[in-house]
Amino acid sequence: MVGPLEERFRTVRDLLPEYRVETTKGRIVVNESGTWQHNTILSQLLFQIVGAAAERGWEIWPNITVHLGQHADRFVPDLAVVPRFPRMAEEHAVLGDSTLLLVDVVSAGSTYDDYYVKPNGYAPAGVPLYLVVDPFRRSVRLHSEPGGGKYGRETEANAGEPLFLPPPWGFALDTGKLLGADE
Question: Which part of the chain is the Putative restriction endonuclease domain (predicted)?
Fold first, then answer.
């Protein structure tokens, strides 16, 4: 059974396909495409993870809804890394526990959602790794070890400090390159 919020979400998503449309705590959030700084961070991240993803046959998706449960929010991260054949809830929605890494770059209007709302939605859905890149704080936070409805571990690195991605990744991100500290 599709509820009123889900119906409105689908309508807005269909009307605005060029935007990222999410539901967050009972509200529909429409995010514009990222700035050049936002996209530069994503590009630098892609340069660092694409080799590992390609070697393992994983896919990197820039625009997919993450299904967190039947009546849960619907988030659209900036990037999602998934196995070759992830389990899908719908054509446009991957199941949270069928992801390998979700990434959001903080924008002026997304700070609260990226730091607090999304981790509390992703952990119960079994999302193994959620990475938050914050150009304002010049830091990167990794949420890992989901269990009991929350993440068991949060690791933060400032620009220039390495941030280790646990297995199945098994390497450190260069946060200096992500946040422009190497310039």
Answer: 17-168
